[in-house]
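Dear support,

I submitted the protein below through the web form. The confirmation email said the job was done, but the results page showed an empty box. After a refresh the structure appeared. I'm attaching both so you can tell me whether what I see now is the final result or a partial one.
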Amino acid sequence: MSSESFSIVNIRENKLLGRRELLVEAAHLNVSTPMRQSVREWVSKQLGVDVSNVFVRKIKTQYGVGKSVAEIHVYNDSKLARVIEPLYILARNLGEEGKKLVEEARKRRNERREKKRKRRK
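What the results page shows now:
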């Protein structure tokens, strides 16, 4: 992590959704692409927000250059983020808590499917 350096390229305010949309460039020569968690922590320190309000949408790495560009959403409220962000983004950023959310969604979907099957018979 010591050979990684981050810089904010662009900040766009999205007032309708209550978030800031950032492009962050990471220079990482001779090391792998930075982990989502390290990018989240760096952005939260730079903007002075809680890590739970920062969601990394994607990290795109250029081949052979040692640079990556991360697309990040920073919300004013973490509850709003859970409503707006897709489930797979929440799962990627929240770790164990995200896995639990995905599992609950699968259970609910399977229950709805079972109800439909029973109605058809």
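Response: this is the final, complete result; the empty box was a page-load delay. The beta strands are 4-14, 19-28, 54-61, 67-75.
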